[in-house]
From TrEMBL:
Record's signal peptide: none
PROSITE patterns reported for this sequence: HTH_TETR_2 (PS50977)
Residue span(s) of domain HTH tetR-type: 4-64
Start-end of DNA-binding region: 27-46
Name recorded for this polypeptide: TetR/AcrR family transcriptional regulator
Alphabetical keyword list: DNA-binding, Transcription, Transcription regulation
Entry-linked InterPro entries: Homeodomain-like_sf (IPR009057), HTH_TetR (IPR001647), Tet_transcr_reg_TetR-rel_C_sf (IPR036271)
SUPFAM superfamilies tied to this protein: Homeodomain-like (SSF46689), Tetracyclin repressor-like, C-terminal domain (SSF48498)
Length: 201
């Protein structure tokens, strides 16, 4: 592997371990063992753990926000269709870390690292905060668009609905962990859709 491939392989392995075990539970030794390389090689590419985790988190956030923009900025989709696309996206991530019969594992880097935010440093905490801000802005615009399409009743405030959706999305993994599976998250998303739909009728 060339250096670019090696860096990406280290980040991919770190991502898997960080989601499963968190910041505290993931060491350069764990990554090197899983990847079949040396700790010195990881130090060479990233310097220290905080720098590696920061880069992994930045990449993960960018990929997540890009995928969610594709779902929620699609003007031709109804709000219900957007929610179903969100469920499908979340289910794919959930199943990556929770194959059938193994429910109960964490599956979101962001929710996992929020538990270890005190170890991330200022940059890491800023990134987590920025993710929440971006999520809320995306959902606010999506609900404003739904209102322009006539999908929201006049008494439904787009910003309020967006805040509820952001709270669900930002706590998606904890919801599945607390309630014993993905179905709880699915039902939470659909409940919000039903409330908005009944309000619009």
């Amino acid at each position: 592997m060339d250096e670019t491939d090696t860096r990406q392989a280290i980040k991919d392995t770190a991502l898997e371990l960080l989601v499963r075990h968190g910041y505290r539970g993931t060491s350069f030794g764990d990554i090197s063992t899983a990847l079949g390389t040396t700790r010195a090689n990881i130090h060479y590419h990233f310097g220290n753990k905080q720098a590696l985790v920061g880069e992994v988190l930045r990449d993960y956030m960018q990929a997540t926000l890009s995928a969610l923009r594709a779902v929620w900025s699609h003007e031709e989709s109804s709000l219900a269709e957007q929610v179903e696309a969100m469920i499908a996206y979340s289910r794919a991530r959930f199943r990556h870390f929770n194959p059938a019969g193994t429910e109960g594992r964490n599956w979101s880097l962001i929710s996992r690292l929020r538990q270890d935010a005190d170890l991330l440093g200022d940059d890491g905490r800023r990134m987590l905060n920025h993710f929440g801000i971006e999520l809320l802005a995306l959902f606010t615009e999506a609900f404003s668009s739904a209102g322009r399409r006539g999908e929201l009743a006049p008494n439904v405030v787009a910003a309020d609905a967006a805040l509820l959706l952001a709270a669900i999305a930002d706590n998606a993994a904890p919801i599945t962990l607390a309630e014993g599976g993905f179905e709880a998250l699915e039902e939470t998303y659909r409940s919000l859709t039903r409330i908005i739909k009944s309000s619009a009728e």
